[in-house]
Write a structure and sequence with these properties.
By secondary structure, this protein is mainly beta. Helices cover 12% and strands 35% of the residues. It has a six-stranded mixed β-sheet. It has a four-stranded antiparallel β-sheet with strand order 3-4-5-10, with no helix packed on it. It has a two-stranded antiparallel sheet with strand order 6-9. Strand 3 and strand 4 form a beta hairpin. It starts with a helix and ends with a strand.
Amino acid sequence: MRTRIAAAALAAAAALSLTACSSDSRPVKTTPDGAPTTSTGAAAPAKSSAKPAASAVAGVGDTVTIAGSTDVELAITLKKWLPSAKSGDEFFTPDKGKMWVAGQFQIKNVGTTAYSDSPGNCVQAADAKGQRFDYFYVDSITAGPQLPSTVDLTPGDTVLGWMVFEVPKGTTVTRVQYTPDSGFGEQTGQWSTT
């Protein structure tokens, strides 16, 4: 009897954990602010007889506003993209067979509550094959200062800095994503880097 109860509890826990990981639970916002909204994971709009407008895809220089937890709202701009970032010192270099790419992000708290997070936990880059690359800490790059490891932004406050990704040599990163709350926020912003 105890074995059946334990097995049922384990099955229920596994089902809940798989449900929490569902990609449909967090929309990915791929359009810049002011453009017709497109996000994945959201309900499809009603059909119209009017010709649909071409959907803009957020890219370098565009701002995407996304929601985090508890009244957190962030206007995030991918200001610049470097397909090859250089070390700020001669001792810290990419691992053999790897290279660095970097994005300069501006994060503005446009919500009504303070935003406290670790941006390195919030970003991810991807190539056209679907390979994903996490933030990679480096001491410095020649392009400028990096985002701090933690940010505390009151409403209206802004932070600007670079985030580095280490990728295999020859990789072309095609998009970068930011999900607040260390990757557990309500929405994900996405920018094309090509």
